[in-house]
Amino acid sequence: MDQNREDRPLTFHEKLLKFLKNQKKKIHIHLLILFPILLVAFILLYTMDTRKVAEAEPATDAVLTGSIVGDIMTGRYVEYITDRHGYEYLFRYAQPLFDTSDYVTGNFENPATDRNVEQKEGKSIALKTDSHSVAGLANAGFNTVAVANNHMMDYGEPALHDTLALMDEKQIDAVGAGKNMKDAHDRISYQEINGMTIATLSFSDLTDRDVRADEQSGGILDFTPETFIPLTAEAAKKADLVLVHAHWGNEYNSRASDRQKELARALSDAGADIIIGHHPHVLESIEVYNDTVIFYSLGNFIFDQGWTRTRETALVQFHVLDSGDTRFEVTPMKIREATPAPINNWDKLAEWSIIRQLTRDLNADWEYENEKLTFTINQNVNFEEGDMKR
């Protein structure tokens, strides 16, 4: 009987048990082989730069092309990156879009100084960067930056004065602050580009009284109605296109507050054509009000925050067309090592998240094609004798 049992073929269950028993003896060998392979694959995946450079072609139907971004902070942990790679490293994936632009602007979220200045008392988070950051902005193509924000006065007036001087030296118009109220008003930017006059202004809704510019002291411009409404209205009379930076809202809140909407409508009524929101550090929706395009928050652009939502961003290009329309093209991007880059084809979840966030309240016909969110608004820009007029 035992002989018969040995001679009969094994059942499937017996074969499976035998296989598992043999594999159990070899599992340590398999793990020793597999672990280094997985480790190398992980290291290669993490260290290899699989991000892609933005694709950009000059818009042949545009009179003027501009680029807009959100918060730029080159201090704190970002300095570890720039110390190793330089400031060009931060902009390298977005650079083609800047290169095809006549106008580039963003929010400069920290003072720039090489002096050993004292931090403002009572500030739990104080930001600053060095003078090389301003050269980095100039080399990237920025010709204006907003400096009306809640960190520009973190190191007092000396750091503000250094920032303004560095911007002047690199021919970047720093708007929204000054050595006193008159200087802050005088720093409203009017640039003549391709036959158009472009005005850029900046105001902050997050200011203590002691950081506001006044007749004697340096500081920033805030959203006091007596300040922002007449300055915006004056710019609308002088310029063909008015862009206003608005530092407002609630940090990490992806929905625009009632206060933001109220200020946006007041800016629009005063003559703003494009409103560039920042401070929440996350994306908020786009809205159109009376032909004014409102980006409630473009989130971070250059920053060291690591939460997923704070690493989602967008770069806006606008093209003023011969017809008088303005075409907006928004490129979704993701930040890694403080460096924004277009979304990879395989990262559809991040792409969907960004588009959903931007279009939540967008009350204009839009489409998403070739990795760009596109919509066109008639902002009543007309040609008269070769110039752009309202």
TrEMBL record:
<dbReference type="InterPro" id="IPR019079">
    <property type="entry name" value="Capsule_synth_CapA"/>
</dbReference>
<feature type="transmembrane region" description="Helical">
    <location>
        <begin position="27"/>
        <end position="48"/>
    </location>
</feature>
<keyword id="KW-0812">Transmembrane</keyword>
<protein>
    <submittedName>
        <fullName>Capsular biosynthesis protein</fullName>
    </submittedName>
</protein>
<dbReference type="Pfam" id="PF09587">
    <property type="entry name" value="PGA_cap"/>
</dbReference>
<keyword id="KW-1133">Transmembrane helix</keyword>
<keyword id="KW-0472">Membrane</keyword>
<comment type="similarity">
    <text>Belongs to the CapA family.</text>
</comment>
<feature type="domain" description="Capsule synthesis protein CapA">
    <location>
        <begin position="65"/>
        <end position="305"/>
    </location>
</feature>
<dbReference type="InterPro" id="IPR029052">
    <property type="entry name" value="Metallo-depent_PP-like"/>
</dbReference>
<dbReference type="InterPro" id="IPR052169">
    <property type="entry name" value="CW_Biosynth-Accessory"/>
</dbReference>
